[in-house]
Write a structure and sequence with these properties.
The structure is a homotetramer. Chain A contains 6 helices and 14 strands. By secondary structure, chain A is α/β, with parallel strands linked by helices. In chain A, the strands form 3 sheets. Chain A has an 8-stranded mixed sheet, with helices on both faces. In chain A, strands 2-1-6-5 form a 4-stranded antiparallel sheet, covered by helices on one side. Chains in contact: A-B, A-C, A-D, B-C, B-D, C-D. At the A-B interface, strand 6, helix 1, helix 2, helix 3 and helix 6 of A face strand 6, helix 1, helix 2, helix 3 and helix 6 of B.
Chain lengths: 252, 252, 252, 252
């Protein structure tokens, strides 16, 4: 039997016009309103996900069940540069994350990647995350709680310069400005041969990190990779790539 | 305390010369042998993962703990075209997979993607996979068992043309030659608004699928995307992209 | 001795702020004016190209000598989709254009590619171009004259469906919506083994064209290729790719 | 009337099997021979370009007229890293090359790019090229002569460290290992506002060059770009990108 929308459900509303705008809304919020008209969300109660709605001005919307990925992309207040999904998925796979693993993250930022990592090791694993900026420390805690992963995540208001407690970890994800300064701490915090991914936006940072790694005996199997994502216009009769694609974000 | 290699451990051996060849071996296998010399694997017992070894001809190897991703890439006998990790990670994220979800897969192929999907929904979720080719049906079962996900995976020797049992599912992953013939069955098997990813190697198949979807009222928020992965030569003083990159594989 | 700006010179003005806006102006126009202030262009007379100017509000501009490529990109009124420079340069090379060659083009559009082709075969070669839309026919003639290539270019208000006169040609460049309908005419118009490039925005058009070519004995060495161009932020300390790149445009 | 092959013609032979191997041969060479059989090239005399031939073992070949691009790619002995056509075409366009222009090149290498530049400014322009390695100096002279551009090209056995004579130039193309050491010489050799392209394989070199340029007042409108080229399998019914693409080569 297909799932039914309840009065405490969260809904992903997708504007079915060309804009394809996406909204994350609570049915309990009762009214969804844009310049294209209003929708009474309570009419969704007891109907199936996937229902098509019309605003009072005739705009059509689909009411879908948000995935965790929708929740992260739309439901998290972000104040930092995001890790693109094209990168996040590849990172989770590359780290070999599984239920029960213990992962070290630095820094937590707004908690988006923390949530993705927590999801990958839940229900039994643990993320230990450091965040030195107090504002982000609070924001990431709030966002992780909102996504219901507080049980799996401990965020500390700490800098990576300090000793990393609770080691060794099964994997690490490092997203700080100058990771080359801390590779010794990171190496000590990792279990033998455990994978670590660094995210670095500039080629200069990669060079600095590689220089440090080449002088450090502990890292082997070093890869520098970059993912690109290209969207196509989804029209059967005129299938073509979009003129612009998302490209960049370099990591190890 | 760092983890210790035991006599029943699986080891990822990485050749530290320029070849960077990777081998998945059992310590209990006792001897690892290539044209670059032999290694007595039992010397690894009671040492930490990350240990560096030399063959009797002097070739150096790192002994790491394989991730699930290493196990899949190196430990699974593959007879079908693979889903690249760049795609697999993005697909898992895009489907929003979480512990406890129920996912429909067709076809299972050699079971590599089945294992990745199973890992993402374990320990409490379930994959129901169809595979019509008897050889692949048996191979995928064997590979899933080897990766210890038999508890989470049911593979059926069945065709997607038949009714899909155990519906509705929270997500679906479809990797068959002519998916456009079956979108009605797939749509009925999915919970309202649940995500589905199709993997299609040619632009012709995408066009056929889009044509069917445009005539079917049930699919919204259709995306056609392609990931590309580019590796860099990891040398600090001469950081540059490799001349060739892995690009392609189109999906929805 | 470096070149001197005269009162009948054309100038490429580049805004040296972050906008990097580019303007093609005549010194004889006397005044250049934007919301960032006015510049008296006559002060440039008898000075060298490369001079830096300030508007009366302090905005800085470089006064460069425009290349033919600047003239085409900025000086041509365009009403059609453009051929990107990343594609145009590769096409000219792929066609092996040299002084003296005779090239058939269809359709001329706004004349931008016509000018690039004419430049590549001048001073002694010839472009014969067809354009069936009267508005574009007139526009392309005007633009080619403005770029001083009237001597090398004959544009006809004609459709490719009709016989192609003045054959055989040494090369052809085809930019029409349904080239697959005309490959017989094109083949007859080309000298034996002469190269032809088709520009096609959608994968469907490529498939249709390939289908026709596979049934036609005259075409060999068929390639389908696509160029992508990626820009980097040109900052020494933070060298990184821009987040978005120009990608697409498929041709043969 | 279509062109006729003569006994002193150069022919591009393309193997019509899946290998698509390409050979540049002289009809006067009389016999073309591979493990797939022999061809008597004299049978081509007085026939049209585009003729299909069979070896005595049945292998099919097309006999085409080579373009200048074929002549460069196949007829030049190369001992240096090549500039890919995807880059060469874009560079010629970006430099705005036209008949009559004077261009400075350093270093000439095997003369492939010298030939492409010479073709773009012929018949009336001039390339002044420096090459400090005696072996390449001789090779580039030989290759340029073979391509019939000796009239337009002067190659000097000189280093860029020395003064650049015959300045100012309308454009420059620099392909040396450490261009950042010479930007002052290059700037002095260029006419005001004239374009220059540097080809640099590593990101480190780009950073060094940008650092020098940021400290030099003479360069404006600096761009760092990279072209990528992707080939598709040219099969109408199964149109798809090839799994690997040519990517890289960074320049300004």
């Amino acid at each position: 039997m297909k799932s039914i929308i309840r009065n405490d459900s969260k809904i992903l509303l997708i504007d079915l016009s060309d804009t394809k705008n996406r909204y994350l809304v609570d049915v309990s919020g009762k009214t969804f309103s844009t310049k294209y008209g209003e929708i009474d969300l309570t009419t969704l109660i007891n109907r199936e996900y996937g229902t098509i709605l019309k605003s009072h001005l005739g705009r059509r919307y689909a009411a879908l069940r948000p995935t965790i990925y929708d929740n992260i992309m739309l439901g998290i207040k972000r104040k930092t540069q995001i890790i693109y999904p094209k990168d996040a998925g590849y990172i989770v796979l590359w780290l070999g994350l599984q239920n029960g693993m213990r992962v070290f993250e630095c820094g937590a930022g707004s908690g988006a990647m923390t949530t993705i990592l927590a999801n990958a090791i839940s229900p039994d694993g643990e993320i230990v995350a450091y965040e030195r900026d107090e504002r982000f420390f609070k924001l990431s805690q709030k966002n992780v709680a909102k996504m219901n992963f507080s049980k799996n995540v401990k965020i500390f208001h700490k800098d990576i310069e300090e000793d990393i407690d609770d080691a060794p970890f099964d994997a690490a994800f490092i997203d700080v400005r100058e990771p080359h300064l801390y590779i010794d701490q990171i190496w000590r915090a990792l279990d033998g041969g455990a994978p670590v991914v660094f995210v670095l936006p500039t080629t200069n940072q990669i060079q600095q990190l590689l220089t440090q790694m080449e002088n450090h005996s502990g890292f082997t199997d070093i890869n520098v990779a970059e993912t690109m994502l290209r969207f196509y216009k989804p029209v059967a009769e005129r299938l073509r790539p979009r003129d612009r694609m998302v490209a960049h974000t370099v990591y190890l």
